[in-house]
Specification:
Layout: E1 10-11, E2 14-15, E3 19-20, E4 26-28, E5 37-43, H1 54-59, H2 71-74, E6 83-85, E7 91-93, E8 99-101, E9 108-109, E10 112-113, E11 119-125, H3 134-150, E12 159-161, H4 162-165, H5 179-188
Parallel strand pairs: 3-7, 5-11, 5-12, 6-11
Antiparallel strand pairs: 1-2, 4-8, 6-7, 9-10
The chain binds zinc ion.
Zinc ion binds next to loops.
């Protein structure tokens, strides 16, 4: 049995002690007992810019198309993730882990489609052009271990990138995401 050092707990699918911003972009999972995959993503809005709060707006369906030309192309898209880890390591949760967030899109893992049905999605604020921050790896590792404590079907071989479940369509978490560092931190923070 893994012991959780970090004080964060999960209750009804929600982390305690982290910022909560409710996204309307979710629905029920076919089976909560089926939660068995973790998908890592990156996002930045506008692309390559950090910290403006636009990801939070986007996941709430509140992105203002007048703010930036790029937003005009995406503001009507209804997506979300369970959690976002900002450049400063701040964790925000948008959707209960017990519900289905809309992050993976058309996807397939080991022959099984519709990954959103059984996956938890975590977004790192980042891009394919800039390295992630150290504190993001720390928070991601802590968060992963907490999630795995409550959802033990997410074994290490079932932690993947969006690129792995939507090959040819998605590249995140991209060339800068250091999988070895992440998996080493997972072992340290257990
Ligand atoms: Zn993604």
């Amino acid at each position: 049995m893994m012991t959780v050092k970090h004080p964060i707990k999960i209750k009804n699918g929600w982390l305690s002690g982290v910022r909560k911003i409710i996204s309307p972009h979710f629905d029920s999972r076919p089976s909560q007992a089926d939660i068995s995959l973790l998908v890592i993503h990156y996002i930045s809005l506008p692309p390559e810019q950090f910290g403006g709060g636009y990801i939070e707006d986007f996941f709430q369906g509140k992105l203002n198309p007048e703010t930036h030309p790029y937003f005009q192309t995406i503001y009507q898209i209804r997506v979300s993730a369970h959690c976002l880890i900002g450049r400063d390591g701040r964790v925000t949760q948008f959707v209960s882990f017990n519900d289905r967030a809309w992050h993976a899109g058309e996807s397939c893992f080991q022959g099984r489609e519709k990954c959103n049905d059984y996956a938890i999605g975590i977004e790192l604020e980042g891009s394919n052009e800039q390295p992630f921050t150290e504190v993001q790896y720390q928070r991601l590792a802590e968060l992963t271990n907490i999630i795995r404590h409550y959802y033990p079907k997410i074994t290490e071989d079932r932690i993947v990138g969006h690129c792995d479940v939507a090959p040819g369509r998605k590249i995140d978490p991209g060339q800068y995401f250091e999988w070895t560092k992440y998996f080493d931190l997972l072992k340290e923070s257990q």
